[in-house]
Amino acid sequence: MNLFDVYPIYDIEPVKGYGCRLVDKEGVEYLDFYGGHAVISIGHSHPHYINRIEKQLRNLGFYSNSIINPLQSKLAQKLGELSGYPEYQLFLVNSGAEAIENALKLASFATGKKGVIAFNQAFHGRTSAAVAVTDNPKIRAAVNPGDHVCFLPMEDLKAVEAVLSENNTCSVIIEGIQGIAGINVASVPFLKGLRDLCSKYRAVLILDEIQSGYGRPGKFFAHQYAEIKPDIITMAKGMGNGFPVGGLIISPEFEARHGMLGTTFGGSHLACCAALAVLEVMEQEDLIENARIQGNRLAEHLSCIDQIKEVKGRGLMLGIRFDFDTKKLRQHLLLEEKIFVGSSGDPTILRLLPPLNVNDGEVDQLVSGLTKSLKNEELLIH
Ligand SMILES: Cc1ncc(COP(=O)(O)O)c(C=O)c1O
Questions:
Q1: Which domains does the chain have, with CATH numbers?
Q2: I want to staple 354 with a disulfide (CB 3.0 to 4.6 A). Which of 33, 305, 312, 333 is the partner?
Q3: Where are the extended beta strands (E) located within the chain?
Q4: Nearest CA to ligand 1 atom 13
Q5: Could you report the per-residue pLDDT of 169-224, keeping only the tens digit for each?
Q6: 96 lines ligand 1 (CB under 6 A)
Q7: Does ligand 1 lie within 6 Å of residue 211's CB atom?
């Protein structure tokens, strides 16, 4: 049987990872400033993470959500403490798209309405309700509903209020920082304005922190720079450091009823152990502070490079804009400098999403690899 060929891939086969490094089957080492698409939060193969999952697997790997699983409450408590949302509620799922699917559903259940406001260039996932609020018609199929979604420009509070005042909107959904679009940071006044408008018109404010959360922006969640509290927050990626786990943090105003939401695998013993290990390491190694410090250092160094026209983002979720298509530069970084970086929907923007425990030497290696590559005129095609 062949694989269904939907992913363009590089001819590299990593067989081992440690910290911010990957090693391929020939023994060549790579610096990881992509984190497997913002997933690796505490670094590859962290010993505490391995031990915790291994120990659990020897006892019990999985049972359904019909029995007592104290690891779920332990995770909810730790997450509440570290994220600053102890009074909220947790629903565990397996991926980002599943978190979005459930967040939109919950907002619709709670308000009895159907309309959703999303923003231009947004990416929220590929399943049905999630892809309908993703601003990319190419990945939407006829079976994915979309006529209830209104895409508006970021920063336009007047347009948001005009739609909300029609009174058929159940939720407003926005990324903490737009990732795939090329690292677009919503302004603090815009996020505060959305919070106020959602309260005024009784719409649910959903913050998609799947890529921008979990310490990456130098706070637990990116929206915390605006000091607002959304009604629902979605998480995945960094939450399990590669183990598939996602979740929704839900305001106490939502009342659960049995059967309202559900999933077979969500919140399994192994997933909870992975997620707990991530939080424990984040706390013990002060990784949110490291993300803030190293992110600032990195941004400072990058802004001194002539060919870089703009450095965007917060903490270790950075976008660097050039005035040329970066495809060749990215290939060169990977194949010659042995550094993984991320692309984005905008070909002039590269994304940097390293593990949160990146250190001075690794940041310096990225900066010198990039500086060296930019001396190669052939890569700077305008
Ligand atoms: C902001 C955001 N939301 C949702 C998703 C979907 O997550 P998943 O691929 O785990 O379904 C992604 C994935 O890149 C994302 O970046």
A1: 62-284 (3.40.640.10)
A2: 33
A3: 14-18, 21-24, 29-32, 89-93, 115-119, 149-152, 169-175, 177-178, 184-185, 204-208, 232-235, 246-250, 310-314, 317-321, 339-340, 349-352
A4: 125
A5: 999 999 999 999 999 999 999 999 999 999 999 999 999 999 999 999 999 999 99
A6: yes
A7: yes
